[in-house]
User: What shape does this take?
Amino acid sequence: MIKSSKIIIVSGTSGSGKTTLVNSLIQHDELNLVFSVSACSRARRPLEKNGSQYIFLSLKEFKNKIKMGEFLEWEEVYPNHFYGTLKSSCDKLLIKGHNILFDVDIKGALSIKNYFKNQARSIFVQPSDIEIAKERLINRNTESAENLTHRIKKMKQEVILGKQLDYQLINDDLDCAKSSIYNYVKSFLLL
Ligand code: 5GP
Assistant: This one.
C-alpha cells in the first residue's frame, strides 16, 4: 500500500445524489482525485460506456474473478447484481500517486475503510427524509419495477449502517451538499 495516497469513500442510499456529488469532486484538479472504476455484473445502461462508469462483466466472469481472488472487496448489492473493486485497478491508481475516490455500497464502504484505515475517510450521503430518496429514484427512471423494489427495501438498512461512516452528509440542497463535501474532502486531502 502506498502511504502518500489518500482514499475517499462515498456511499449513500439509492437516490441520495451521491454520484452527482462524486462527479463534482472529480472536477477539482487540486484534489488529485481519480475515480475507481468498479467491475459489475448488471446490464449496461444506455448512456454508460464500458470502462468509464464500470467494467461490465457477465455473471460468470464476475464469479470467476471472485474465485481467483482478484477483488479487494465485492458485494452482491442486489440479487445477481455483483459489484466489486479490482485489486489491479486500485493498484494502478496508487502507483501513479493519485488520491482515490470510491463510490460503493455501504458494506463495500465499511470493507474499504477497514482496509485503508486512517489513510481513508468515508462519507454517507442521504436526504433528510427517505421518502425524498424514493421519489428521486422513481423519477430517475433507470430501474425496472423489480430492481426499484429491491433498492427501496435496502434503504432502511443502509441508513442504519451508514452511521458507522466518518461523515454523515444530508443532501437536500445540491449546491449546499457539494460545498460541504468539497470542504470536508479538501481538509482531509490537503492536510
Ligand atoms: P448502480 O447500479 O446504481 O450504478 O450502483 C448500485 C450500487 O452499487 C451503488 O450503491 C454503488 O455505489 C454500488 N457499487 C458500485 N461499485 C461498487 C463496488 O465496487 N463495490 C461495492 N461494494 N459496491 C459498489
